[in-house]
Records
---
Amino acid sequence: MHMLALALVSIGLSNPSSRSEDKPSRPLLAGFRPLVFLGDSITYAGGYITYLEAFLRLDDPKLRCEFLDLGLPSETVSGLSEPGHAGGQFPRPDLHERLGRVLEQTKPDLIVACYGMNDGIYHPYGEARFGKYKDGIVRLRQKSAKAGARVLHLTPPVFDPLPIKARTLQAGLAEYRQPYEGYDEVLERYASWLLDRRKEGWDVVDIHGPMKRFVAAERRRDPAFRLADDGVHINAVGHWLIAREVLRHWGVPDGEFGPAKGAEEFFAARPLGTTVLKLVGQRQAILKDAWLTATGHTRPGMARGLPLDRAGREADAIENEIRKLVAGNR
């Protein structure tokens, strides 16, 4: 077992238990409010959130901290939208249109926020767009603090132009209805700004840098390697990379991940790992759409979730199954 006590105490989520030198004990997260994940379609996909919770549930059978995925596809924290987004059907949703309702209804202790991929609206770097992103992040922090929630920021994931090379656009155009070929350089600036905020006491996890290094290493082995077929929406390996960086940030030593490159391999190697992973994913999916529907948003085309009371009952049934499995696995 490893020790997340320091990181979790810093966000007010745990009471450290007694521990011995040779066998440290895990913190008990009982009776606390949820961790709410906010972001765009990458967060809505939920892979890294499922991996995080499943890892922790297997590692600590006493874990009682709820992970809620409230990511919304297409969303920005900047309030910007590129010309012709979604074929002109709708502008990108703005997080701040719904943030107050999310905070009021979920009452989280911690917000995990992953924004940036959509916030540069796939254009070359521009000071005005960058300013909107920074302002949106600051507003997110201010509103969360007022609601009693702390924020853990994730830097933007990577944009990979290689898989969509024929559809990217060069610099210097008046309009970008398809991605700028050097858009990852924009995301690097956004990531660097977030990382610089650590000196002001912000809690920030870098996922952009590790993901970029991983892609570069894989390309040396296989020049056609892809982490995202469309350059944006990462596959399961990409979600596992994000989860691992967050777990490292929370104090999990590298040795606990073993040699597995992907989550499936990692969880398959642990007793009941695949089963617990599947159940956690099912529970998160039920709650995700239910909470998005209950809190409301402006993004058309989203599945309508169950009423919260029904979703809660279904989620509780799965939760009981998870608890029995992990308790019997010790």
Note: The mean pLDDT is 89.
---
Amino acid sequence: MTKSSLEINAWITTAFFAWLVGPMKLERKEISLPGQEPEDMLSVVKIEKCRYLQASGCVGMCTNMCKLPTQRFFTDEFGLPLTMNPNFEDLSCEMIFGQAPPPIEEDKIYTQPCFANQCAIGEPGPEPCPKLDTDRAKKQR
């Protein structure tokens, strides 16, 4: 994994996948690759408003059907660490190529309440979305 491989993958994502998730742009961030000094890289893809999250209106669907599989694919199959950080306030998402996803037990997404006003089984309050499948996700890691 090199700086250029991360930046190329970020560029490819913005160039060829906007049709799937919505408008996106490249951003810079300081990334720490294993065994190297932190370096400023153009390897962050900012999805301005994720179509999938907007259409599903569901924290669990975003996590179980997009975030986890995408992180797993790039990190495990491609060997390019990727962390996805959905923003449930503005429905944007940040894809950080070169940053390994946090361990499931440390990922703050699992404390995210659901969109109770859009979910038949969700309730307003601080409880995590009932559709977050943490047991299955923990077993698959």
Note: Residues 3-102 form one domain.
---
Amino acid sequence: MNQKQNQSQAATTLLAALRADMRAAVDPKHRDGERAFFKEPINPLGVRVRDLNAIVALHWKEARGLAPRKLLDLCDELWRSGVFEEPVVASKWCGRALKKLDSEVAFATFERWLATRVDNWGHCDVLCTKCLGGLFERAPGLLPRSDTWLTSPNRWLRRGAAVALTPAARHGLHLARVFHVAEALLQDEDDLVRKGYGWMLKEASKPWPGEVLAFVLAHRERMPRVALRYAIELLPKDWRAQAMQTPWK
């Protein structure tokens, strides 16, 4: 058996073991709760987060042994499955594998998943925080490639443009980019997009509280209420009161 066949067999074995472990961890009560939690229709097995994280870690040794292209192919299959937990596994594995993935190939793959596979905020957020967020920290030159997302009719691309910046914002990186994205999405009509950039600003307020307050004060007359409340959540109480003195939408 040649190396390519070995890799294919390893991926097939890994996928079977992963799915068997997920089926063994199913909690029907949790499955019903997940379905009620999302406005969008989802198809969960019902694996609790702590159990899914344990399964991700358990099989990471085999996953990281795959060649980069084979790992992405396997994760692509997980994204196509229609089972809610499987794209979560794919995103967490790809996030762990960023060092071995070619940045250009990774970006193209992650962007494709965001544009064509994501259909709920849970998948949007795990893909953007675990994969795209880490990629943008490692390869900031890719950030301008997400500019087209800001005006896309696809709500997940617009939300993703902000959510993918939350790791960098939390770590004190790319403040100018954070404000660029927030300004572009400031009056977006979609509530999930508003919450997404509000979350990004909240993360930015950890290393840059004064700068975020100044941004909010400059834009509060046009900033929707939900985005403003997210953005100022971690600021000092008197700063929050100052930010909310002017009526909002």
Note: The chain has two domains: 1-101, 141-249.
---
Amino acid sequence: MTCADLQTLLHGYVDGELDLVRHLDIEQHLVGCPDCARACKQLQVLQAALRGKSFHFAPPLGLRRRIEDSLRDLDDSGPRRGVWPWLALAASAALIVFSVGSLIRFWPTPEDDRLAQEVVSSHVRSLMIDHLYDVKSTDRHTVKPWFHGKIDFAPTVVDLAEEGFLLSGGRLDYFNNRPVAILVYHRRQHVINLLIWPSTQADAEEPHALNRQGYQLLHWLSGGMTYWAVSDLNAAELRTFADLVIRRLAQ
């Protein structure tokens, strides 16, 4: 891939819209080209700035009270002259503010984007170089002890075979500046990688869905741990898997 080729694809790469082959080609090019790597970093910084809190607009204080006061001004004979246009304008503005606020609240953060790319890369590497397992077993009592002494936390290993998600082993990876435990499950012919590492947040967080390079991802926090599930399963089945894991963890 040339620098000119990369420039035409860079926005799609940063937005996570490219197919897997082009994504990996760009990653390889960025490793060996400081100029393109710098351009990519600048675009990522700009993207993060556009998603920052400065673009969050809250409804002005007293908007609801002013709308209610306008409604009370209506007498039995109908709306006073000039009231309805202003009321319609206020309601439209409130709807727009609410919609924009909702979009920004659920928009993935730059940190989520970065981790999502790393999770997908880990998943793809495990499939490309045939290294799904460091320990291969369907028995959680074999998989869980294997991690002892290799990492500074103990991942909970749940058996979901009866629900159609077969535990098949585990492995270690390293990203986000720390070792990560990965549990491997199968749903028919589909591989699910469940990545686990300690969270810096104490509160639980419901699963949040993302899609990168054609892979479905779910990210959530539970019991002081960060969880990322990634697979080429459809979104509904991956969510079922995540819900089952969460319920088992709560037992």
Note: Residues 13 and 23 are 6 Å apart (CA to CA).
